[in-house]
Amino acid sequence: MKLNQLVLLGATSLIISTVPVLGQAAQITASRSLSHTPSASNHNILVAQGKSMAVASGKFLAGEKPTTGSARIVTENGHRYLELDGAFSTSDQGPDLHVLLDTTGKPPQAYKNQGSFVNVGRLQKYNGTQRYPIPDVVNVANFKSVVIWCRMANATFGYAPLQASSGVSAR
Question: Residue 7, exposed/middle/buried by CB under 10 A (0-12, 13-18, 19+)?
Answer without folding.
Answer: exposed
